[in-house]
Design brief:
By secondary structure, the protein is of the alpha/beta class. It is 40% helix and 22% strand. It has 9 helices and 7 strands; from the N terminus they run ααβαβαββαβααβααβ. The protein has a 7-stranded mixed sheet with strand order 3-2-1-4-5-7-6.
């Protein structure tokens, strides 16, 4: 048993505000993705959508806006996140078309019901047997329906390689530590199986016909607005916590300086902080 075991447990209640802020900032990227899916899945034919791993529901409401004739179901295993999703839909005037469903996937997938579009955003990797799960999702699709899996892309970048304090390449080292954390997190999932993450091949193995893969870019250059700065502080604080014991002491010292509101080199005062990432959406259709 790894001595890092307890640090791979995700406190979703604590993570919820960070997830919500991050998804809000990335809304332009996700709107582009939804519009792309709408090019080969016309909105008029989409009557029911499952947002698998909906979290606080930012994407749920975007999907409801992009597909105005559809009921959209936010599916998640964490009740406080679903409450955020419900409240967001109500605030956006979408309460009549958005509902929430608590589900501990992969159990009882069939209870989710049929759908014309299933959106699984960064959620499949939280299920031990990814191949079997995609097969289960495929059975829920109506004929002509589409499964969209968001996995991969590019890591988030927020700072230059050399930030003037500590060793250059801090974010690359954070990525390496996070990759080890991710391996341990997946190994601890019930029924975990190693899988080559060739998503096109996995979707084909689920009996679906791949219908395209695209990556969508988010690029907010320096100097960033205050909302982005707040997200950056929260994101680095989260990494500082979950990567405890996995980072060199000098990198921890740098992180603490970045998080110090009074440090002139800190995130709240830096003029060179930015936000850059890309998410990849893999789609496949049921014949």
């Amino acid at each position: 048993m790894s001595h890092h075991h307890d640090t791979t447990h995700i406190d979703w209640d604590e993570l919820a505000p960070l997830m919500e802020r991050g998804a809000e900032l990335q809304s332009p990227l996700y709107r582009q993705a939804a519009a792309w899916i709408g090019e080969f899945l016309p909105a008029a034919g989409v009557r029911r959508i499952l947002d698998i791993g909906s979290g606080p529901g930012v994407l749920t409401t975007l999907l409801a806006e992009a597909f105005p004739y559809a009921e959209v179901v936010a599916v998640d295993a964490t009740a406080p996140l679903l409450e955020r999703a419900r409240a967001r839909a109500e605030r956006g005037g979408l309460g009549d078309r958005v509902r929430v469903q608590h589900a501990e996937l992969p159990d009882k997938v069939e209870e989710l019901g049929q759908a014309d579009l299933i959106w699984a955003g960064h959620s499949v990797h939280h299920i031990g047997d990814q191949r079997a799960t995609l097969g289960d999702f495929a059975t829920l699709l109506r004929p002509g329906g589409v499964l969209a899996v968001v996995e991969g892309g590019l890591p988030m970048r927020r700072l230059p390689r050399d930030i003037g304090i500590g060793r250059p390449g801090l974010e690359a080292r954070l990525d390496a530590a996070a990759a080890e954390w991710f391996i341990e997190m997946r190994a601890e999932l019930p029924g975990a199986k190693d899988e080559v993450e060739d998503w096109r091949a996995l979707l084909s193995a689920a009996g679906l016909t791949p219908s395209g893969t695209r990556s969508f870019l988010l690029d907010i250059p320096a100097p960033v607005p205050e909302a982005v700065r707040e997200e950056q502080v929260a994101a680095f604080a989260w990494q500082r916590k979950i990567l405890d014991g996995r980072l060199a002491s000098d990198d921890v010292t740098v992180l603490d300086r970045l998080l110090d509101p009074d440090d002139p080199q800190g995130l709240r005062q830096r003029p060179d902080a930015y936000l850059l990432t890309a998410h990849t959406v893999h789609t496949a259709r049921r014949g």
